[in-house]
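quick one, two chains, predict together pls
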Amino acid sequence: MRFTDICPYDSLTPLEKMPYVALVEVTKNLDGLSFDFLSITSTTMKRRLSELDNKPIKEIRRLELKKTTIRKCFRTVPACYIYAQCGWKTLESTHQLTPRPIDFDNISFNDILRSVVVNAVCVNHTFIPCGKTFQWRDEVINIDRKTLCVTSKTLRKRIGDLNTKGPLREIRRLEISRTVARFNATRTQPVCRIFIHYPKRAVKLYITDHVIIEMHIKRGQPKRRSLLCGFKNSPKQEPKVPYTIHTIPASIVVFDDLLRKVTDNSVCINHSFYQSGKQIMPVVDAIANIPRRIRGIFRRRQIREDYFTRLPDTCLLEIFKHLTRKDLDYLKGVNKKIHSVSNDKSLDKIKWEQGGLYICQRKRLQLRSSNSKRCKEEKIYIVPLPFEPKFLTRLHSILRGHNVKSLTCWSMKCDMNMDPIRQEERSSSFTQLIKGIPIVEMKAVGNIIPSLITEQFLATVCASGMIAFISELFPVDYYQHKFQVSESFLPYLLKFHSLKAPGMILHTNWIVNLIMDYLNEEEEFGKREEIFNKMSDPCRVDFVGWEFAVDRPITSQLIKQQIRAAEFQYTLLPTLNDEKHSIVNIRNNMRAIISPFAWEVEDGAATFHVVEIEFCHELESS
Amino acid sequence: MVLITLVSSDEQNFPVERELLKQSGTIETLIVNMNLDDEDTDAAAMPIPLPNVKGDVLEKVIQWMEHHKGDPVKEGDNEDNNAEIVVPQWDDDFFKPAMYGSKHLELTVAASYLDIKNLLTLSCKAISNTFKGKTGPQIREEWGVPNEFTPEEEEAIRKENEWSE
């Protein structure tokens, strides 16, 4: 008899055809499936698996393998169940099938199980066949443990335990195992399992060796009627492995050679292999859904003994030197020891790439870097991006993967109607982004950056190690966002090797003293110069000095009044259009060249005085 | 032909041609220090103990050295582009049978200990080839390495690598 005889496929509606999962004892094949590696003794099982090899099926939803033990006079439960999802037309069986509708009233469920089913209050109860572990999310009501016809005291206790908490909404799965003591002190297979599922409409089949049970669920039937169950055609008529749900979150995969072939096969999804003396492990994606205590019983089978991680670190490093960065990244996730060794500095030349890295926008809220390697001590270019907090945060997370010494941003875009809250958010994100980067250049960034540059901003980034901050913008942008700094900011200013922030206004009276202080710090200057020199050409900043605004013009007379003539030498440097001033530290020949200039703003109604101070050694300047 | 006897950790004796041993930096140093090259010295009477190498591994090492007799010996640190090294067919066949077992790894350790640079390079390259294009779980499965990471740690590593994918 064929399945199609039992339930003609053509008679089903499209909806009915869709969600079916048929439990097929002997199903079709899987490509490459071989039973040679399966540690079973059952010839039936072998035959079934060989049949799987003959014909493909579209998709296996569930595969259960159970170890069969050959006994003297009878076999244990079937060794293999395969739940396949496929069209009904493709289902065939060589077995003699005797369809029989289920009559719930005559099912010899014991009362306790019926109670569980009828109440439909359980969710996801699983009694593991070993009889020692089970779990429930909540509990079942109305279970009378006295009526449970199991011999196991442990099981009785468990069922009783289900009564101690409140009701559940539905039963998704309930497996109850009975352990029967036998003369040889081993345990039998589970006595019964109940899997309750509530599909919208379903026709399901269950096949055992000799019996097929058919159950029709019609539209409008109570949910409980969708319970599908089957019988082993045994004298006691005990329920036996009725049915399973389509998919369960905690799918389990056995890792032996055979099953790995199965799982490697692209047609398989959601395999669930029952514990059967083999060691089993959860599917990685599903492990999070398995309760912790259940997780413990699934152990991955060790196919090979781990010799690899016993290698000395030097040998591991030798091996890793032959890998690419991507391979190293994968390797990091193998084991803690390997993770540690793969972080060795000797592998840096594989992991890090010299040269610049360009980051640009790929899609909305996605960024893309120009190459797959991390750049170390090199320059990062950020090409036009929306100046939005989300982007800045994302950018920040990308830059954390690099050892950034220099950052250049240009043409960042921003809507002009910024509300104060968004502005504050942007400012915070931007500060976070550039904190700790020694050199930052901002080019053609419109009116965004000037509005962010404040005394607090500069003090923060300076304290985080920045030594150069250069923003090249139009004077009007700076003028619109000018700000006066307090005297407490001057120590920060002295730490800047290069600073262009013309919107920052200093008192003119501070300038000469500030320059003299800077010129006295030859050692600090040397250290910062060294940082600059260590960088490759693209990272260097040509300008060493400061550019900011002053509240009134700086004059030759003012300088002469304030300079300490015993230590510093002042010279006026006449030029074609303007005049410059030179201050030289007599002791160390450090020199500052002061170039004041004025910008006419507000259509010529006001003047913005800016001063550029360049530092160098006198020999260099001459 | 001068023969020098190597003694493994399990006290097996392996008489080896002097010429072959030039491939091993460690043994070469010992030979020089023990003056085994002197005409007056009876090299056969002075076996070189190798307490860190078992007999079966040493046998493999000698087999490899015999095949590579006359090959130029690398000196100093390997500055080659490791990615471009190709394992010759003979060596591939030599390593493959024991690739995932302890023997190959012991051979690698022995190559490191005996300072046989060519053997170490090829052996490591052969091992590293098994990692190419494989994910962490696949490597774990292949080499039988236990997973010590918690799901949270695995997620953190995945995120760490995410940016370049």
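The first helix of chain B runs from residue 25 to 33.
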